[in-house]
Amino acid sequence: MTVHSRPARPVVLGQNQYGKAENRVVRITRDGATHHIKDLNVSVALSGDMDEVHYSGSNASVLPTDTTKNTVYAFAKEHGIESAEQFGIHLARHFVTSQEPIHRARIRIEEYAWERIETSDEPRHSFVRKGQETRLTQVTYDGERWEVVSGLKDLTVLNSTNSEFWGYVKDKYTTLKEAYDRILATSVSGRWRFGWSDDAQQMPDWETSYEQARTHMLRAFAETYSLSLQQTLYQMGARIIENRDEIDEVRFSLPNSHHFLVDLEPFGLKNDTPDGAVYFAADRPYGLIEATVLRDGCEPRIPVDLTNL
Ligand SMILES: O=c1[nH]c(=O)c2[nH]c(=O)[nH]c2[nH]1
Asked: Where does O2 bind (predicted)?
């Protein structure tokens, strides 16, 4: 009888790779009052001597995908993110040179572009995602009266400081730690209703109105020292009502896009340092904060559920 170390197989393993996909890394670098942001989605795929884990389940050559995730966050803190290319090269070299069974590393990175929200003065820690927003309007006419509701959706904004959240109700299910310096980020969905309702009235300049409402809203987001997203929302609406006579009502639906400070202590790295930090940008679940802000004496007419508009 011939003894084979491995039985002849009618089936063999082909190309394979593994790793952690879509690590959402936000790196804030603080240069005094001026902050810089790098926002990446990093996917790691490793391959090499990985036959055994597939054939027998032996994990002896497997660097856990969880470790590849931790490496991405630790490198973002330790070495910074100069560019997506430089970051990808650094990671790929690390996996191939530090682990004998790993022969190839493929790092895919999407980078999300942000630009600064310009305010009249420092500090500079407010950003808006480039080219994301959609402008909206709804016009209704019954032969006599007009109703115009305009607005936008998918306008993503972020403050890298000047946001706290504490002093809230705590019951037996509350585990949230009070935050004294957190990232505040949201994707704004907002509608505003014009006071113009009949042909005898002076019609607003729609283009100027949109530009100005957007600018006032962004400035209020950037300039509010926030104790909650609810407070920031109110300021954004109030700023539009105060500055734009043609607008009587504003409604916002604001997802609270949570950014969690990554615990890098196990790797000997202090994350929350004066020169900045690395965050995990979670996409769900998210807090959802919604409210209407009105000119005093005006009727609320924008539907509560913005998806119906
Ligand atoms: O700004 C916030 N408002 C909340 O109501 C809330 N709830 C929560 O868990 N985090 C936050 N943040």
From this structure: 65, 256
